[in-house]
Design brief:
The complex is a heterodimer of chains A (about 280) and B (about 550).
Chain A lengths: L5 H11 L16 H4 L8 E5 L2 E2 L3 E4 L2 E6 L1 H13 L3 E5 L2 H9 L5 E8 L7 E16 L16 E5 L3 H15 L6 E5 L2 H9 L5 E5 H8 L5 E18 L3 H17 L1 H8 L7 E7 L2
Parallel strand pairs in A: 1-5, 1-6, 8-9, 8-10
Antiparallel strand pairs in A: 2-3, 3-4, 6-11, 7-10, 7-11, 7-12
Helix pairs in contact in A: 3-8, 3-9
Chain B lengths: L11 H11 L2 H32 L4 H16 L2 H11 L9 H27 L2 H9 L4 H31 L11 H12 L2 H30 L8 H12 L9 H4 L13 E12 L2 E12 L3 E5 L6 H8 L7 E6 L6 E4 L2 E4 L3 H8 L1 E4 L11 H11 L5 H14 L15 H13 L5 E5 L7 H16 L3 E5 L3 H7 L2 E6 L2 E6 L1 H6 L4 H9 L16 H4 L4
Parallel strand pairs in B: 3-9, 3-10, 7-8, 8-9
Antiparallel strand pairs in B: 1-2, 1-4, 5-6, 10-11
The chains are: A alpha/beta (about 280), B alpha/beta (about 550).
Chain lengths: ~280, ~550
C-alpha cells in the first residue's frame, strides 16, 4: 500500500498535468454537449455506487429506491451540468472497480481514493481530500486517543481501503516500538465493521471521517475517538482513455464549485467544504 | 417505503419492525428478482443438466469427456468468479451482457453442472435390468430414458434437486457483485442507511423462508406424484375393470388390422428352421463365453437349454434378440438378421437397433421379472404396443386386459409390481412379452428367482404357450418341466453345446459325462399339475400350426 506515500505521486501527476488547468469560464451548457463533448452526445452515463456508505452514497430513508448522499448528488448535478442523462447502478464496492474497467459502468463515484497503483487501471478526477475517523465504543473504554494507542488492540477497516493501509502502518510502528501489534480485522462493508465494534469484537473502527461522524451522531453505542486528515485524494474513476468523459466531469465539478451549488451539497450532508480541491484529471 | 422504526423497548416492537420490513416493496422487489433468476436458472439448468448427464453416460468417449470437463469446470470454480468473468471479461471480446442476463446465464451454467450430477445419480440408481427389459421390447434409448428411467430416477433426483433449488434461491445473493440488486443486497442497502441490521436481516430471512417453503411444498407434491406406491388410475376405470371381471370370458381373435401387428402366415413344421445360430462366439474382454455354438430351432419348436451357470445359456438368448453384440458367427430369425447388415464378409450392427429389435418381435422373459416398477401391471403390458408399435391406447388396453385375464391376473391390473408376488410378477412379465405379438419367445431362467410354491403357476403359463405352438427357447433348471414341455433339450457347458436330443435321450440316457454330472445335482420335482385353464394365451397371439 502506497497510499500514505501517495502525496509524492500526486505532486508528480499534478506537475505533468499542470497544463490541463480548468477553464475558469466554463459554464453549465447542457445544450452544447454535442459540440463540447462529442463522444458523450446521446449517451446515458452509468454511475456505479455501493449505496451503503452514508453520507456519500446511501438509500433515501423516505424512498429506498432512490440513492442520495454527497457523491450521488454531486454526480447528478455534474451530469445535469454537462447535459447527459445519468443512471445509477448499485453493487458491492469491491465489484465497482472491475466493472468500471470493463466498461459495464462509466463512472465509479463512491469515496474512491486515487492511488498510483489504481491509476494504472482507471483514470481519476479528483475533488476532495480524504479524512479518517476512528469510531470506538461509547465512553471510549480503552482510552484510544491516537493511532499509537491501538498497539495490542483489535481494529477494523474495510478491505483494500486507505484506512486499512493506515492500520497496517500503525501495526508496523507498534512493532518497531517493541509494543504488542495491532490486530487488524478487515471487513467487506462498513456496517459489518461497525457490528464488530458493537459486539466487542473490535476496539476501534477506522473509516471515512464523515461516515464516522454521521454514525456517531446521536448514537447510544459509538463515538468518534479521533480523526486524521490524510494526504489521500478522493476522486471519481473512469475507464482508461475516456478523455471526453473525464474532461466533462472535471469541467462539471469546476462549474459547481464556481456557482456555489457544490457547497450546498456539502452542507446538506455536513461534510467539510474546506476539504474540496480543484478538480484534476489524474491518469498516472 | 421503510416503516418508521421507533427505539425498541419492548418485546413486541422488534417483531413488528421485522414484519414491517417483510412488506417493504423495496425488499420484495429484490425477492422477485431472486425468484426470476432462480426460476429461469432452475429450468434452463435442469434441461442442460439432463443433456450433460446423458452425455456423461454416452458410449462415445469424446462426448463423455466434454460433459466431464463441463462439470469439472463449473463445479470446481466459485460461482462469484464465473459471474464476474461473464460480466467484466466478456466485454473485452465485444460481448456486453446486462446484469440480469449475466446472472441468469451464470446461474444456469452453474446449476446445469450440479443438476447433471444429480440426474446422473438418479439414472444410475435405476436398476440396469429395467433398461434391458425396455430394449428387449424394442424401445429406443431415448424412449427408455423418457418413459422408464427418468420417472423412476425422479425418486432419487427430487430430494437432491430440491436441495439444489433452495441453494439456488439463496445463492442469488452473490449476484450483487454484478449489480443485480436482489434481496440480500437490498437488505444490506437498508442496513447501510439505518444500521437496523437485526430487523432488516430478520425480515429478509423471513422472505427467504417463504420462498424456500414454496420449493419444499412443490417438492412434496412431486414426490407424491413420482412415489412408488401411488394408485393413479381414475376411479371410473376401476369400475370398468370390475365390471369386465364379472363377465364370462369371451375372447375375440385379434385381427391384424385392429392391432397394427402384421403376422406372417407360418407353418408349424418343426423341421423348418426358424432360429439358426452358426458358429456363435461371444467374449467379455478376454473371457470367452460362447466358443462356437451351432443351434437350429424349428418353427413352433420348444427348446429347453440346460447347463451349469456360466455355461453361456443366458448370453446365447441375449445374442438372439441382439441385446448383446456378436463377436463371431451369425444368427438369423425367420431367415433374417436382427439388427445386422452383411457388408462384404462381415456383419455390421445397424444404426437403428431399437427399430430392428421391435420389428423382429422377439418376446423375452427375465429371471428377475424386470417389470417397470413405476407402472401398474396393465401399464407394463400396454407400454410397448403403444409407444413402440403405435397401437391405439384403447385397443392396447383391452388387449392387455385379455392377456392379464389369460394369466389369471386381471384383478391385479392396477397394482404396481411391488404389490405383486414374484409368481404374479413373472406372469405379468409373460403377458407383457406377449403383448408385442412375438414370433419367438425367449425365457431366461423364468422361475429361478421364485419361491418353490410359486414356480408352478409360471410354468403353467409357459406350458400353455408351448401348447399353443409358440416357438420358444427356455433356459431353465426345471427338469420336470423340460421333460414334459420340451421338444428338444440342449445341454451347454463352458460355451459350447455338449449334447442335444429329445428329453428322453438327454435326461434319461445322457451320453456325456458332463451332462450326467449336472443332472445328478439337479433335483427333479414331481410333475406340475397340467394346466386346465379355460384360456390359452396363444389364442390371443394367433399362431398358425
Amino acid at each position: 500500500m502506497h497510499i500514505l506515500h501517495g502525496f509524492r505521486g500526486i505532486c508528480l501527476v499534478a506537475a505533468t498535468l499542470a497544463f490541463q488547468t480548468i477553464d475558469a469560464h466554463a459554464a453549465c451548457e447542457p445544450d452544447k454537449v454535442a459540440t463540447k463533448y462529442p463522444k458523450l452526445a446521446g449517451r446515458m452515463i452509468t454511475v456505479g455506487q455501493d449505496g451503503e456508505s452514508p453520507p456519500f452514497s446511501f438509500r433515501d430513508p423516505k424512498n429506498f429506491d432512490t440513492l442520495i448522499g454527497l457523491d450521488a448528488d454531486m454526480a447528478r448535478s455534474v451530469f445535469a451540468c454537462i447535459g447527459v442523462p445519468v443512471e445509477f447502478k448499485t453493487g458491492n464496492w469491491s465489484g465497482l472497480i472491475p466493472a468500471t474497467m470493463a466498461g459495464q459502468i462509466d463512472v465509479m463515484w463512491d469515496t474512491l481514493l486515487y492511488t498510483p497503483e489504481r491509476a494504472k487501471r482507471l483514470d481519476f478526477i479528483s475533488y476532495m481530500n480524504s479524512a479518517t475517523g476512528a469510531l470506538v465504543a461509547k465512553g471510549n473504554p480503552k482510552n484510544i486517543r491516537s493511532l499509537d494507542d491501538l498497539c495490542g488492540l483489535r481494529a477494523n477497516a474495510n478491505l483494500g481501503t486507505t484506512q486499512e493501509a493506515i492500520l497496517r502502518e500503525a501495526e508496523r510502528k507498534c512493532q518497531v516500538a517493541g509494543k504488542p501489534e495491532v490486530e487488524v480485522i478487515t471487513s467487506t462493508d462498513m456496517p459489518s465493521g461497525l457490528r464488530l465494534l458493537e459486539n466487542g469484537r473490535a476496539d476501534a473502527v477506522l473509516t471515512n471521517r464523515f461516515l464516522a461522524d454521521r454514525r456517531a451522531a446521536g448514537s447510544m453505542s459509538v463515538e468518534v475517538a479521533f480523526s486524521l486528515v490524510t494526504d489521500a485524494i478522493i476522486a471519481a474513476g473512469t475507464a482508461k482513455g475516456n478523455d471526453d468523459l473525464a474532461k466533462a466531469i472535471q469541467d462539471g465539478i469546476g462549474e459547481l464549485r464556481q456557482n456555489g451549488s457544490l457547497k450546498t451539497i456539502y452542507e446538506r450532508y455536513k461534510v467539510d467544504y474546506m476539504l474540496t480541491v480543484d478538480p484534476a484529471i489524474l491518469t498516472r | 417505503m421503510a416503516p418508521e422504526i421507533a427505539e425498541a423497548d419492548s418485546i413486541t416492537d422488534p417483531i413488528w419492525a421485522v414484519l414491517g420490513y417483510t412488506t417493504s416493496s423495496f425488499l420484495l422487489t429484490g425477492a422477485l428478482i431472486a425468484i426470476e433468476i432462480a426460476a429461469i436458472a432452475l429450468l434452463g439448468g435442469t434441461l442442460l443438466g439432463l443433456l450433460i448427464a446423458t452425455m456423461r453416460l454416452s458410449l462415445l468417449a469424446p462426448i463423455r469427456a466434454i460433459a466431464w470437463f463441463y462439470v469439472w469446470l463449473f463445479r470446481g470454480t466459485p460461482l462469484v468468479l464465473q459471474l464476474v468473468f461473464l460480466y467484466d471479461a466478456l466485454p473485452s471480446v465485444g460481448i456486453r451482457l446486462s446484469s440480469f442476463t449475466t446472472a441468469v446465464i451464470g446461474f444456469t451454467l452453474n446449476e446445469a453442472a450440479f443438476a447433471a450430477e444429480i440426474i446422473r445419480g438418479g439414472i444410475l440408481s435405476v436398476d440396469k435390468r429395467q433398461s434391458i427389459a425396455a430394449a428387449a421390447l424394442g424401445m429406443s434409448n431415448r424412449l427408455t430414458l423418457r418413459r422408464i428411467i427418468l420417472p423412476q430416477a425422479m425418486r432419487a433426483i427430487l430430494p437432491a434437486l430440491a436441495n439444489q433449488t433452495v441453494s439456488l434461491v439463496k445463492g442469488t445473493a452473490i449476484a450483487s457483485v454484478i449489480f443485480v440488486n436482489e434481496l440480500t443486497f437490498r437488505a444490506h442497502q437498508i442496513v447501510g442507511q439505518n444500521f437496523e441490521f437485526f430487523t432488516v436481516f430478520g425480515a429478509a430471512g423471513l422472505i427467504y423462508l417463504v420462498m424456500t417453503s414454496v420449493v419444499s411444498i412443490v417438492q412434496a407434491g412431486l414426490e407424491r406424484r413420482f412415489g412408488a406406491d401411488r394408485e393413479r388410475r381414475p376411479l371410473l376405470d376401476r369400475f370398468r375393470t370390475a365390471r369386465n371381471e364379472g363377465r364370462p370370458a369371451t375372447l375375440r381373435p385379434v385381427a391384424k388390422e385392429a392391432t397394427g401387428f402384421g403376422l406372417p402366415a407360418r407353418s408349424a413344421d418343426k423341421s423348418k428352421p426358424f432360429v439358426v445360430c452358426r458358429s456363435v462366439r461371444k467374449s467379455y474382454g478376454r473371457r470367452e463365453i460362447l466358443r462356437g455354438v451351432d443351434l437350429t430351432v424349428g418353427r413352433g419348436e420348444v427348446v429347453v437349454v440346460m447347463g451349469p451357470s456360466g455355461s453361456g445359456k443366458s448370453t446365447l438368448l441375449r445374442l438372439i434378440n441382439h441385446l448383446e453384440e456378436l463377436n463371431g458367427g451369425e444368427i438369423t430369425v425367420d431367415g433374417a438378421f436382427v439388427g445386422y447388415e452383411r457388408i462384404g464378409d462381415r456383419l455390421m450392427p445397424q444404426h437403428d437397433l431399437a427399430r430392428a429389435r421391435a420389428e423382429a418381435r422377439i418376446g423375452m422373459v427375465f429371471q428377475h421379472f424386470a417389470l417397470f416398477e413405476h407402472f401398474t401391471a396393465l401399464e407394463n403390458i400396454v407400454e410397448a404396443p403403444v409407444q413402440v408399435h403405435g397401437m391405439k391406447p384403447a385397443a392396447a388396453r383391452s388387449r392387455a386386459e385379455e392377456l392379464l385375464r389369460s394369466v389369471g391376473l386381471l384383478g391385479h391390473a392396477d397394482h404396481l409390481p411391488s404389490r405383486l408376488s414374484g409368481g404374479q410378477q413373472q406372469r405379468v412379465a409373460i403377458a407383457r412379452a406377449l403383448a408385442i405379438e412375438p414370433r419367438l419367445m425367449l425365457f431366461d431362467e423364468p422361475t429361478s428367482a421364485l419361491d418353490p410354491e410359486l414356480v408352478g403357476e409360471v410354468l403353467a403359463a409357459i406350458r400353455k404357450l408351448a401348447r399353443g405352438g409358440m416357438t420358444m427357447i427356455v433356459v431353465t433348471h426345471e427338469v420336470s418341466f423340460a421333460r414334459h414341455v420340451a421338444d428338444r433339450i440342449v445341454f451347454m457347458d463352458e460355451g459350447v453345446i455338449v449334447e442335444e436330443g429329445t428329453p428322453a435321450d438327454v435326461l434319461d440316457q445322457p451320453k456325456q459325462e458332463r451332462t450326467r454330472r449336472f443332472l445328478s445335482k439337479v433335483e427333479e420335482l414331481p410333475a406340475d399339475q397340467p394346466a386346465d385353464d379355460a384360456i390359452n394365451p396363444l389364442s390371443l397371439v394367433k399362431v398358425d400350426r
